[in-house]
Design brief:
By secondary structure, the chain is mainly beta. The chain has 1 helix and 8 strands; from the N terminus they run αββββββββ.
Length: 153
């Protein structure tokens, strides 16, 4: 019997056995919890506390084009890992806000609130490099944050 047939037969048998025990069924992902503003979220190598959000037109040393504004998220991110990190920008993301890539048109309606996603990673053995790393980014929580209009009067 050719070796290829033996490999295909073994694969088919493994797939059939897996299906008997639910191995082909879709696994439901756990719901991402919604937490209150000011509640600390465990992100693995960091701890995140989202405290607010506001529109701003000026920031020290940063410049905007005319007719643009920033929608900012206020958060405290604490390093909980055993070494320095530079990836804190991975910890929070805004969801469902129009025009938020770098700047937002100041003519866009001011949202009453925004959803801030808190992301985290899990420390596990990297199978490629055989080292312990923070991997597998996933949403750990969402925070519904009221937006203060720092541009108004």
């Amino acid at each position: 019997m050719p070796l290829r047939w033996l490999g295909v037969g073994t694969g088919v048998a493994g797939l059939a056995a897996s299906s008997l025990f639910g191995g082909l069924e879709t696994v439901a992902k756990a719901e991402v919890p919604t937490v209150e503003v000011g509640q600390r979220v465990d992100g693995g190598p960091w701890q995140v506390t989202v405290t607010g959000s506001r529109l701003v037109g000026k920031l020290p040393t940063l410049y905007l084009a005319d007719g643009k504004r920033w929608l900012t998220v206020l958060a405290t991110i604490e390093n909980a890992a055993n070494k320095s990190r530079t990836d804190f920008d991975d910890a929070v993301r805004l969801a469902g806000v129009a025009g938020v890539t770098r700047e937002q048109d100041d003519g866009t309606a001011v949202p009453e609130s925004v959803t801030v996603q808190v992301w985290g990673t899990t420390r596990r053995l990297d199978t490629v490099g055989d080292r312990w790393e923070w991997l597998d980014p996933e949403r750990r929580a969402e925070v519904r944050v009221p937006v203060q209009d720092g541009m108004a009067g």
